[in-house]
Structures are given as C-alpha cells and as structure tokens.
Predict the 3D structure of the following.
Amino acid sequence: MAAQISIDHIQSLGGVPRTFAAGNIICDYESDAPRLLFIQEGWAASSKMMPNGTRIVTEFVLRGDMVSTPLTVLSRETVQAITNVSVIVFPDFTSLPKIEAPASFYRVVLTELMRRQARMSEGLANIGRRDAMERTGYLLLELATRIGASRQHRNSDGFDCPLTQADIGDAVGLSTVHINRVLRDLREAGLLSFRNGVVAFLDRQRLMELVDFDESYFDKHVM
C-alpha cells in the first residue's frame, strides 16, 4: 500500500473542513486566497486548458493529497471535483508573514510537495516514453497503488474508479476514441478491464512487467 499522509494527524492540527459537490471548482489559477487543502475523501482532477480548448489532466488528486492554491496559480491549473470531495483547509504559511504551526505540519507540507513532484516526474516520463497501451496501464496501476489495498474493489484485484474515458484520455494525451480502443486492447490482451466504474486487473504482474511499473517512489513513509 502506498504511503499517505495521515488524515487523522492532519485533523488534529486544526484547519477548517469544507465540502465540494461533484463538478464544482475547488480552486483555479485566479484564486486570491493562499490556502493549503488536504483531501479527506473523494477524487478531483488538476488540469490545464490549452488555447485550442484541449484539456490536459496533470494529475488526479486523491485522499491524503494536498492542493496548494499558490502553486495552482503559478502553474495556471484548475482543480475540479470529480466526485463529492471533502477537504481540510489551512492558511498557506509560505504566503503569510507569520503563522504558528507545529513542526510536524511543516514536515507534512514539504513531504507532500516532494511526493507531488515525484508523481509529476513519473507522469511526464510516462507520456513521453511509453506507447498508448503502456501509458494507460501505467496510470491505472499508479492510481491503484495510491488508493491502497484497503480501498480496492471488494470483488476483484482492482478498484472503484469514478473516472470517465475522457478523464483518462486527458491524463495520458489520447482522444476519447483512442482511449476506448486502448482499453479494449488491454481487456482483449488479458491485462485489465474497465467497466461500470470498476478497474479490474486481469493479470497485474504481467501488466507491471509490460509497462515497467516501479512503485518505489511511493514507499517513503509519511506520518
């Protein structure tokens, strides 16, 4: 199971709870309040819109992940709820003259920034160096690892996945038509299936070998 920030620990540090309905914007590059948001429950997507109207999903934001509004502004991204999302909101200490916070809070924030950098680096390598089937398989393996075994689908080697084919396509640089064909090829190859909101790994080990999936960058312990 991937290491994640302890939500119980984050809750113990205070913060303001807030919820966002599916489809609502959590923050975007026009946000003017510097905040740190830790995801308690739900799925969100961080994305950029290109001048031609194409959307690029830079990453999916899951339980335990942190969203920084100053980083969102700098990268000109929008974070939108895919499902109903609950968060814990803190001021961003890097943007304020002074804020009292336990040392463990600073450690959590810095560790999450490093984890996000690692995910972004892997995502760039995935799109740049793998073919369509490999990059799609890699993304779904990564999401399964980030969710962890305790949150996988109860009836299969897989997980409940609220993403649409368009969401997956926007994350791996493929059109909806192309991603539909890739998912069919993965199923026919006996590697995985994606139906009715469930990703089921038909042969996880063979898929991991095919895409050279290495989950070691998830292994760093986070309190």
About this structure: The CA atoms of residues 115 and 218 lie 8 Å apart. The longest strand covers residues 35-41. The chain has two domains: 7-124, 131-218. The chain has a mean pLDDT of 85.
